[in-house]
Design goal:
Elements lengths: L1 E8 L8 E8 L4 E5 L6 H8 L7 E6 L2 E2 L8 H5 L2 E4 L11 H11 L4 H14 L15 H13 L5 E5 L7 H16 L3 E5 L3 H5 L4 E6 L2 E5 L1
Parallel strand pairs: 3-8, 3-9, 6-7, 7-8
Antiparallel strand pairs: 1-2, 1-4, 4-5, 9-10
Helix pairs in contact: 3-4, 3-5
The protein binds adenosine-5'-triphosphate and magnesium ion (MG).
The site of adenosine-5'-triphosphate (ATP) has 12 residues, from helix 1.
Length: 219
């Protein structure tokens, strides 16, 4: 579904952040992406989301070699990918409900066709009583769950989550992990970037480990 071949990435004239990175993400798979702070996890996720281009190598996403894609083709592919950013990127002037509904509104969908889905998803992540709250009054963990709901509302084929449990207590972290597993069982490929060893020990998933700009894979 997604394939990296000998991908290298550098920012400006710095040394390479990623060097000769090759892997593939099969359909319906679940993997952790780990490695120390600054190892390049977020950078790798940005390549997966096509918000960054590799300096060298080849990235194929849903059968498309990304270097040959025209700019206007990117949003169509991105729609099939859900992302939870490390810094959430919620819109502060919109309610929880509106933040989650936004991707569907942008696509011009009829509000009545998705209203219940948005409410159900927010209940599923435990925010049924915060539908009308604005992000600035939410806790870090609550914001994180809004970001997760927004990433899932359009039923992506792949979910990329960058430290999705970085702001929640261990109990909520387990709940979110179960939520990702449930999603994965229903057919979505999931990539969770984390340095939370306790989280990774809870399930037997593939681990992709970044170290010194290179990627090791443990099945
Ligand atoms: N926009 C940028 N411009 C220049 N250098 C960058 C940029 N973004 C990241 N870097 C550098 O690339 C390296 C990898 O950063 P990245 O954010 O991908 O790491 P990370 O593994 O996600 O770290 P963390 O666990 O702290 O989130 C770091 O050395 C960082 O300073
Ligand atoms: Mg990061």
């Amino acid at each position: 579904m997604i394939r990296f071949e000998n991908v290298g990435l550098r920012y400006g004239m710095e040394t390479e952040v990623l060097r000769d990175v090759s892997f593939h993400i099969p359909e319906r798979s679940f993997q952790f992406l780990t490695g120390p702070s600054g190892a390049g996890k977020t950078s790798l996720l940005r390549l997966l989301f096509m918000s960054l281009r590799p300096t060298r190598g080849s990235i194929t996403i849903f059968g498309h070699e990304t270097s040959t894609l025209a700019r206007h083709e990117l949003p169509i592919l991105r729609r099939r990918i859900g992302v939870v950013f490390q810094d959430f990127r919620l819109l502060d002037h919109m309610t929880t409900y509106e933040n989650v509904a936004l991707p569907l509104r942008v696509r011009g969908k009829d509000e009545s066709s998705f209203r219940n889905d948005v409410v159900d998803l927010l209940k599923w992540v435990g925010l049924g009583d915060k539908l009308h709250a604005l992000p600035p009054v939410l806790s870090g963990g609550e914001k994180q769950r809004v970001a997760i709901a927004r990433a899932l509302i359009d039923q992506p084929e792949v979910l990329l989550a960058d430290e999705p449990t970085g702001n929640v207590d261990p109990h909520m972290a387990r709940r979110l992990l179960r939520l990702f597993l449930e999603l994965n069982r229903s057919g979505t490929a999931v990539v969770v970037a984390t340095h939370d060893l306790g989280l990774m020990e809870q399930i037997d998933a593939r681990r992709m480990i970044l170290n010194d700009a290179q990627l090791d894979i443990y099945a």
